[in-house]
Structures
1.
Amino acid sequence: MVKNIRSLIILIVAIAILPLIFKSDSFHNVLVLLLIFATLGEAWNIITGFAGQTSFGHAAFFGIGAYASSVLFYRFNISPWIGMFVGAIFAAGVAAIISYPCFRLKDSYFAIATLAVAEIIKQLFVSWDFVEGATGISLPIVDDSLWHMQFNSSKLPYLYLALGLFAIVIFICNFIENSKIGFYLKAIRESHEVAESIGINTTNYKTYAMVISAALSAFAGTLYAQYILYIDPFMLFTLDMSIKIVLLTVLGGIGNIYGPIIGAAILIPLSETTRIVLGGTGSGIDLMIFGVLVILVACFQPKGIIGLVQKIVNNIKKQKVGEGKVETNS
Amino acid sequence: MKPILNIDNITMKFGSLVANENVSFTIHDNEIVSLIGPNGAGKTTLFNCITGFYKPFSGKVTYMDKDITGWTSYDVCKLGITRTFQIVKTLKEMTVEENIMTGAFLHTKKRIESQKIAEEVMELTDLTRKKNIKGGSLTIVDKKRVEIARALATRPKILMLDECMAGLNQTEIKDVMNLCLKLKDSGLSLLIVEHIMEAIMPISDNIVVLNAGKKIAEGPPEEIVDNDEVIKAYLGDKYHAKSKKH
Amino acid sequence: MVLQIISNGILMGFIYALVAVGLTLTWGVMDITNFAHGEMLMVGMYTAFWMFELFSIDPLLSIPISTLVVFLLGVLLYKLVIKRVLGGSGLTALLATFGLSMFLKNLAQFLFSPNYRYINGAIVTDKKIVLGNVILGLPQVVAAVGSIIMTLIIIYFINKTKTGKAIQATALNRDTALLMGIDTDKIFAITFGVSGACVGAAGALMSSFFPIYPQSGGLYSIIAFVIVAMGGLGNIKGALYAGLIIGLTEALGGFFLGTQFKYALVFLIYLIVIQVRPKGLFGW
């Protein structure tokens, strides 16, 4: 665990130094998005990677976080910092409410239920005038200020906010993984019956996981809204958004705390570059290539990039052991 | 000896199929009770009724004067009754140590304490050397060991083992028998479902025989081996008649 | 008026059912959540469109063509992609089908542009059937009837033919089926093909009254997911009934609550039904 914390700190420091070396705006932009999506992936990983309950509805919690802070700022001029926590509480509340009925369901039935919940929430936001319905909310532009979480002259403040959030979330995930709740969630993932037989109240623990996961996703939502400065239901609550979160975590390595950041580090720059280099024409060729890459990973590296890394590390270890044996024999 | 688990007139039905019919017996403190009977006699169903995986149709399960009929399985476990599964269910992606730690977390929040409990249990079940192997890559014998160890780590008062010796060789069966006796010495009560008579008879204090859902006999091992009903249930009427002629 | 709404709902329900039958096959038999199902439907629609544009073949007559085209597409996708992800976790398969969905959608956009296209002047276009107070659009009626026929063919195929029975056996237990001498690889390829055939036919049937564009399959695939789960994974009868329930819910909900809420109601109905039957209407 101590070793884990050390490597996590190294990772975060490394990411913190990167933008000081590479100073281009587009690089900073990619890094901000990457960190926000990695945070979302970490959050999703708790409920699906650890607890094994596939959620196709995490866009809902992300969207609730984005809307809560935006509406409070837009309507009442309340700081997004407060909105951030309001959003997290709302998302956690929604998660707690849907948990009981949804966790009676298993596997695909659960996954489709989360998708249904997200779609219902989307419809509500589309037809809710107070939050400007389908038109969406353009956040009023104000002078750069930390209190208003708006920085229009540089992307660096956003970048470090995103990094801070990511750091908090990955430490939370690391803590969960190595504590009682993490063990219990993994036991639930591996076998529901075993979990119950050794005294685990499965519904309660799944609900804890869902609530934590939802609150963390909402934090990412607020930051995203403050960064983009415009939100509408169709960009936040869609199935595509939920699947993007699933995609990057599975790509990096599901159930591993490094999975989401690795996945995001590949997926986000890739989609941004293909969009910039090949896109803009609306020809769709960028996303075509992207689709093919996703298929290739699924077919040839099903355990994600982290699986590939582990395989290589194991091979090197084996080779070393092998060499050792040869020496003792001679 | 004082009674700790009382099974009182348990009946379990699946539709029109009666799996258990008015089964009653008692487990006392510090005692090994074995549940035997031919395939389909309703042994595992009874296990499930006691541990809350099924809610019995009628009857009562009492643990130390507490009515626990229809409790959830996790509450039954928290109270001190832990079971293993006939078809081993190892937590595949977790190591042996992690498997056992998961059980050990029942009475502690601290990782270090659960690790300590796991170490003790691994020592007892001879798994220490294998602690870093993933559950999915173990041999069947070791999977059965992990199954028992994980249950033990919850520090039960009553341990319920469902056919934990099936498929093991003679030496391995001896190991499990010794383990059972060792656990009894340490103050546990055991309820064992088993087919292997040679293993069961020497270690049991009391044997309950089920046939077609009903209890047909109960008593110490030496009585059970001579019981007519039991021989009939196991060998059928024809053979029974032959054995009588001698 | 209500009768009119109910009739429209039922007609739409049969079409949804056909799309869902295709999805439930791959989901139930192969345990693959096919996110590219909607895109296969879109290929069916485009096939009908180009047959009409280039060769003036009416969508009704091009049903066999688009059925065959998407059947072959299904087999091809199985051979190239799905086969490789079958053994892995469900999420790997999801990753692959999602990649396929992206690829197909954007291939269509690249080849045919994102513009909406319509088939004007098909045999059924703008014709109506009047039954007392109820006016039914001929395209919808034909599509519903076509869907019923296609669904019946699939039911016959699964229950009566040797291949169909092999598919059922494989769905129950892949390993046992293999031991019994069933070529499961071939069975999976056929299952994926038949799943494609369903949406191929559905695509042609729908092409005469729905806009055709690269994203046109997306909505139907989400609805089909809900229908399949509601009916019980792998259950064709379940998909049929759930399809009708969803069709009716959508029509009635749109009428009484306003069109903006009709899909919310569809998803709500799923959540309610699944509470009563956690493994779907016909699940076990």
Note: Strands of chain B lie at 3-14, 17-28, 32-36, 58-63, 66-67, 81-83, 158-162, 189-193, 206-211, 214-219.
2.
Amino acid sequence: MRCEQVAEILPDVVEGTGGASSQVFAHVDSCLRCQAELAQYRKLLRALRHLRTEVLEPAPGTVTGILAYLEAAGERGAMRLLLTGHRAAYLGGIAVATAAAGAAGAIVVASRGKRKMRLAG
Amino acid sequence: MALELAELVTAAKAGDRKAFEELVRATCADTYTLAYRLTGKEEDAQDVMQEAYLRAWKGLKRYRGEAAFTTWMYRITANCASSHLSRRTRDRHDRLDDDHVLADDRLDSDPEARAGAASQRDRLQSALASLSPEMRSVVVLRDVYDLPHEVIAAELGISEGAAKVRLHRARRKLRERLFPLRGEDNEERDAHAV
């Protein structure tokens, strides 16, 4: 294998999950340049993993800002729920009123019909 | 005495707002650190944090505790950062290709950080900041936070294969930048000369 081919695989080999063939390892074992490059990838990976131990502090007031944002979002949600509820109640009221008016109208028509029949009899 | 995270999560899941606020306080530095590493900008990191905690609050009932709460927050933060960066790119109509360089605003604004930029850690931060957001996200989530490939792919909305390709390219770019070989050094010099 040539160094250029091995160099293409080294970023995956460093993690140990690259599925590199024995040819790759044989080349690295015998090539100082590729050994050096692999060592650099290992160093890079160690440095990246070390970053995990570093914690950055957010600017003062960030947490307060987040809590205020959550509060406002909660209120918006509650308001939306309230409006949706009111709208539903309003539409429900209209439906009930329409149904009641329809029923009352039907009763009136029916009772007039009965009276006419009695008079005719 | 502060309650343990698990107790806070249980209380927050039951609707205890104060417990959730405590959770935010307990995890905000970790969440901010990841958001900052993914976005490279303080302002963006704060926006991502807000969105992440809002999503966490809304989705807390779905959290079943299979992974640590912090890992769950990392996933949400990664997802929010990805959406935030895509939205920002769309809004500005600027294409962020693989060679796009994002400035590390902390290094720009902090004289001490600038003075110490020769140290390996600062060089690494600077190299990370030079990656495109797409490549940086993958390498940070995999090599710094040790998230599995399938989780990274799911949270970034890409295939697992694409995540692996980005990781490969990101590692190579970081290695070239931090430890340039003779040929790469010349290439870089040539590029600067042009």
Note: DSSP finds four helices and no strands in chain A.
